[in-house]
Amino acid sequence: MPVGKRIYLKRNLPDPEVVKAFAELPASNVADCMARNCAMHPRIRLMSKPDHEMVGPAFTVHTRAGDNLAIYAALRFCQPGDVVVIDDEGDNTRSLIGEVMMSYLRDQKKIAGIVVDGPIRDIDNLQNWKLPIYARSTTPGGPYKEGPGEINVPVACGNVSVNPGDVILGDPDGVICIPRKDADQILPKAQAFHQQDDAKQVAFSQGSVDLSWVDRSLEDKGFDIIDDVYRP
């Protein structure tokens, strides 16, 4: 088997109902239920104007830096509702995808969104699309089409490990990765946390929140509270 030039056509996929339910939750609430250890680096930013959250199973693509042959292969093999997740090996010099390929993914493949840990181009039009598009940056410089590359293998995107079939959730704050095997256990915790968070926001707004724990924590951690001005 030619490692570096592999295309896996099958994935273990999450429960569609679980995926659908995550679409009702903010990425931040879900992340807080995962030890705050699942969010992609903020260099990956929302580039379009979707009117809904991005959620779907990961269709992973590992490209050679600055090369998009494997992404063209993804156009053939990804499925409706997928989130295409692209690892560009840390490169930030050549765009991997633009409006032409994006049009095919949106209109023909009907993907749920795309996450590119690298540059894209044609942002003047893409920035107004409803398709959730996350990327690292933009540049007019185009890619090579030589390979190698791999599809549906583990990748690193935004400093987070992503396996094929993991649940990818994105909103205006950014993108998180929910491991497929843990998704059904994380969902009820995140739903409960979301309800508690709404109540917490109301309490903070009304000034009825109990912040006595802050005083105890500051004392336990050895903070000095000085009733005086700072003097250099």
Structure, described:
The protein is α/β, with parallel strands linked by helices. It has one domain (16-191): Ribonuclease E inhibitor RraA/RraA-like (Glucose Oxidase, domain 1), CATH 3.50.30. It has helices at residues 16-22, 27-32, 69-77, 99-109, 123-126, 183-206, 212-220, and strands at residues 45-46, 54-63, 83-87, 113-120, 133-138, 149-151, 155-157, 160-162, 167-171, 174-178. Strands 1, 2, 3, 4, 5, 6, 9 and 10 form an eight-stranded mixed sheet that branches. It has a two-stranded antiparallel sheet with strand order 7-8. β4 (113-120), α5 (123-126) and β5 form a beta-alpha-beta unit. The chain is globular. The model has no long low-confidence stretch (mean pLDDT 95).
List keywords for this structure.
10 strands; alpha/beta; 7 helices; eight-stranded mixed beta sheet; 232 residues; EC 4.1.1.112; two-stranded antiparallel ribbon; methyltransferase
What fold name stands as the CATH topology?
Glucose Oxidase, domain 1
Total number of helices: 7
- Tell me the CATH superfamily: Ribonuclease E inhibitor RraA/RraA-like
Range of strand content: 15-25%
Shape: globular
Supply Rg.
Answer: 21 Å
Structural class, from helix and strand content?
alpha/beta
* Helix share, percent: 25-40%
Based on the structure given, which CATH architecture is correct? 3-Layer(bba) Sandwich
Mean pLDDT: 95
Low-confidence stretches are none
Order of helices and strands: HHEEHEHEHEEEEEEHH
The CATH class: Alpha Beta
How many domains, as an integer?
1
Could you give the count of β-strands? 10
* CA-CA gap between termini: 67 Å
Largest β-sheet summary: 8 strands, mixed
Keywords: Magnesium, Metal-binding, Methyltransferase, Transferase
Protein name: Putative 4-hydroxy-4-methyl-2-oxoglutarate aldolase
Catalytic activity: oxaloacetate + H(+) = pyruvate + CO2; 4-hydroxy-4-methyl-2-oxoglutarate = 2 pyruvate
Family: Belongs to the class II aldolase/RraA-like family.
